[in-house]
Amino acid sequence: MATGITYVDEPEHVRLALSPLRRRLLGLLRTPSSATQLAAELDLPRQRVNYHLRALETAGFVELVEERPRRGFVERIMRTRPGTFVVDPTMMIADEVEQAHDQYAAEHLVNVAATTVRDVGRMQAGAVAEGKRLLTFTVEAQVRFARPQDVHAFTDELAGAVRQVVERFDNPDGRPYRVVAGGHPAPAEQERKQ
Q1: How far is residue 31's CA from residue 144's CA, in Å, rounded to a whole number?
Q2: Phi, psi of 180 (to 5 degrees)
Q3: Which residues are bridge partners to 77 per DSSP?
Q4: Domains in the chain with CATH codes
Q5: Which residues is 63 bridged to in the sheet?
Q6: DSSP string, 122-175
Q7: What's the pLDDT tens digit per position in 141-187?
Q8: Which end of the chain is more exposed for a tag (fewer CB within 10 A), N or C?
Q9: What is the pLDDT of residues 28-44, one digit of tens each?
């Protein structure tokens, strides 16, 4: 089964998938199944399940795997689209709200992260559709700061180091890449488990 990203940037499509029954259908359809099989498993009328499957199919969350002739009708075998669903987080950011551009503002970090999710999600979905690979990289690290002012000193040094590396590799004829470095307090161990 191919994997990839199903990129969702339509608010109406997001709303479609939020109901408890539809979320349950998406989970069950990780294994291909028909409306009849799902209705029996959920103890619901087949017509009701079929209605929700059609809505999920129209929104692009599920796909047809095969059609089987059954006693006077065609049974449609569906599955949840393979891979990960990525919802465009910038849908929730109002255009008229002025975004913070302070490198130390949490709002700016959230906006940059949302934009990154949106851009990479769109490009990855496009690359998978074309049978290509999207070349990306990620650098992660954890650092423990002794004092709050060390965060500012670290940021200045990191920015300088990034600037030097960018100057070394930047080529006006090359493909542009967006490099993002952000930092936030690591969640407490207990919070991560919840």
Answers
A1: 44
A2: -125, 130
A3: 34, 66
A4: 5-84 (1.10.10.10), 88-174 (no CATH)
A5: 79
A6: HHHHHHHHTT--------------SSHHHHHHHHHHHHHHHHHHHHHH--TTSP
A7: 999 999 989 999 999 999 999 999 999 999 999 999 999 888 888 88
A8: C
A9: 999 999 999 999 999 99
